[in-house]
Protein: NADP-dependent oxidoreductase domain-containing protein
Organism: Aromia moschata
Amino acid sequence: MAKIFMNMSGGLKMPAIGLGTWQATDETELEKALNIALEIGYRHIDTAFIYQNERVIGRVLNQWISSGKLKREELFITTKLPMHGIHQDRVEFFMKKSLENLQLDYVDLYLIHFAVGAKYVEGFPTLDEIEFQDTDHIAIWKKMEEQVDAGRTKTIGLSNFNEKQVGRILKSARIKPACLQVELHVFLPQHKLVQYCQHNGIVVVAYCPLGSPAHNKFIATVGLPERELPDMLNDSIIKKIGNKHKKTAAQVMLRYLLQRNIVAIPKSVTPSRLKDNIDVFDFALDANDMKSLDKLEVGEEARIADFKLFKG
Ligand SMILES: NC(=O)c1ccc[n+]([C@@H]2O[C@H](COP(=O)([O-])OP(=O)(O)OC[C@H]3O[C@@H](n4cnc5c(N)ncnc54)[C@H](OP(=O)(O)O)[C@@H]3O)[C@@H](O)[C@H]2O)c1
């Protein structure tokens, strides 16, 4: 009913629940959370150059690997080419930077973070410093393929690309995208995109699977006005289904994705939530539950990650 691992093209297995780390920038908090997560069985970690936490993650992973508590092969690590690296001349540079930060010889999955690239600035650009430029997906993808050839990543994929953009890459790729990471949750179930990807052997990874309740905290840090966001964790139907199975709303939302063969990467730095979010393999939603959850679809209006915050 729900797979613990999702088979990827190229033979890799991706753990179906991963740990999201966006907004996890407090070093002490993240270090503690990562140690707990690894203790309780998380083996899949999702980060990105732009999250500014690769170094902390690298430090913790290094402690686990060098002490013999974990083998590198047991882990699945994803990181992403940042917006100001989305250019054919900068793929290798940023890939190497992420590996250095993570203290790893290779990652399992390297994603192009966005469909549009921006001009290079050193370090981490502020919103004001982001200046979009023409982006040649095909040329960039060739450089991504070279990262696999060089052994720096086991596989490659896309994030925030639409069906048409994925299709263009599929047509010309020597190494097909193994994964598409997009916003996906009960209110924005993305049925058409999921069907397209799964038909083409692309594993779909859902970000904001719990509705990203702290999203407005980020909006405030970039000086933009708060937005009214959907509150799925308190939705009465989701909670009712949870009560029936003695599970939380969060667990129902994650299980809903797993039963659609979608990988979920909930972020948490709270020990009890870390435990809840991975404790989703001992129950099953029945056909009626799935139908009720499908009916909660809101569509685009429920989209949380609003990239219109970038100028242009
Ligand atoms: N590719 C992209 O462009 C992109 C965009 C956005 C996100 N992502 C990735 O996807 C991951 C997940 O997305 P997200 O972080 O935006 O949203 P999310 O996972 O839907 O929500 C995370 C928030 O929910 C809280 N939370 C976690 N578990 C909970 C539970 N069981 N009950 C109640 N609250 C809970 C967390 O708080 P605490 O941490 O305080 O517990 C955190 O504030 C990110 O961390 C990142 O790795 C990728």
